[in-house]
Write a structure and sequence with these properties.
508 residues, mainly alpha, 20 helices, 0% strand
Amino acid sequence: MRTKKIFLNMICDIIPYLLIGVVGIIKMDVLINYIGDVGNGYYQTINQIISYVFLAQAGFSDAVIYSLYKPFAEKNKNDINAIYGGARKVFKIIGLIILGIIFLVTIGLHLFYHFEDGYEISALICFFIISTSYLISYFGKGQTYMAVLSAAQEKYVYSLIFNGVKLLCDILIVIVTVKFSTLEAIAIVILAMKILEEIICRIVVKRKYPELHEIARKDTSMIKMTKDLAWTQLGYLILNNVDALLLMGFNGPIVVSIYTAYNYILRFLTEIASRVELSSVYSFGNVFAKKEVNRVYSLFKEYMMMFILIAFSMCLTFMIGIRGFITVWVGKENYILDYLTVILFSLTSFLNILYFPLVALINADGLFKDNKKHIFICSLTNLVLSILLISNFGINGILFGTAISFILNIVLKSNLIVKKIINNVKIFSILKYYIISLVTFIIFAIILSPIESYFLATSDGFIITILKLGLIFIIITLLTSLVLYAISNNAKNLFTRLFNLLKSKLKR
C-alpha cells in the first residue's frame, strides 16, 4: 500500500508538472517578446525576492508534516485534529508577519533600488500583488491542508488542485501578456488564481476528509522545530536563489533574463526530481514512525539508484540540447552561451538531484538542527565564491560557486547520515556513489562536446528540436538503466519493484 501511495503521489505531481513546463516554455518566450528582456528580468527578480520574503515561514510546513507522521501511523484522529488546529493558528500569525515584511520590502525597493526608466511603478505593483496573493493560503486553509495530506501520503489530492490551477494560471498569463504587455496584468492573474485555488482546495478536502476539523485543544508544539528549520530555509534560498539577485546587482536585468532562460529549463527538470524526493521523505517518515529502522539503508540505496538514473538522463539531455533549444525557442544570438557555461549549468543540477536521497532521509528523521549547520556552511560558501567570481567570470563564476557548495553539502550530509541514522555503515559506502557518478559525468561532458556542437548547428524548427531531444532522453535513460541493472543489485531491486507495481496496475 505504501509503495502504491508513493507512486500515486509522484504521478499526480509529475505528469501535471510536465504540462505546466510545456506551457511555461511558451510563457517565457511570450514574456521575453512582449515585455522585453528588461521587463522579464524584473519579473524573474521579483520572484526571487518573494522567495526571501516568505522565509518568515521558516520551514513551519515541514515541522507540521514531521509532527503528523506518528499520529497518522497510529491513526490517532484526536492528535491529528489538534495539530491541524494549532497549525492553522500559527500559519495566520506567520501570514501577518509576512504581510509586514512585504510592506517594508516594497518601501525599501522604492527608496533604495535603481530601476530602469519606466519600470519602477510596474515592478513595485507587481511585487506587492503577487507576494500578497501567496498569503491567501496562510490566512485560509491551503497551507495546513497541504501539510496534513503530505503526512498522510495523500499529497496527490493537493497536487492535483495546485497543479491544475497553476496550469490555468500560466495559460492566462500568456493571454494577458500578449494582450496587455504589462507586469500588473500578470500579477492580477496570479492573485485571481490563488483565490480560486483556496476555494477548490476547501471544497475538495472537506468532502474527502469530513473528520478533519479544529478542536478545542490546539497543538502548536511543532513551532519549536522552526528555530532549526529557519536556518535551513535561509540556507536553501541562498544556495538555490541567490544567483539571479547577484546577476541583477552586478550585470543588470538583461543578463538575468538570459540566465533565467537556461535556468527555467534546468529548474523544471530539477523540480520534477524534487517531487520524487518529496514522496521519498513521506515514505522514510512512515518507516521511522513505524520503527522499521532496519529497512532504512536498503530503501536508501534503491532511492539512490533512482536519482542516479534521473540525474544522468535529465542533465546529459540538457547538456546536449539546451543551446540548440534556446536557438529555436528564444531566437536571439546573445542568449547562446558557451558550452563551458552549459556544462556548469548541467553540473549544478546534476549535483542537486543526486543529493535529494540524503535530504529525504535527514528530513524524515527530523534532523533539522544538524542539517541547519550544513546548509549554513554551504550557502555561505556559495555566496562568498559567487561574489568573488562574478566580476571576472559572470555566470560561470556563480555556477562554479554553486557546484562547489553542492559537493560540500553532499559530503556533510553523508557524514551526518552515517553518524545519526545508519551508523553501522561507513561514509565511503555512501560517497562512492557520488564520486563515481561525478567522474562519469565529467567524462561524458568532454566526450559529448562534438555531439552537442552538431545538435546546435542542426537545430532548425521547434517541433523537430523537441522530438530530437525526446529521442536523446529516451536513449540516455535506456542506456543508463541497462548499465545500472547490470552492475547494481540495488538497481535490480528497484526496477523489479517498479515493474511489479506497474504490472499490478495493468491487471486492474
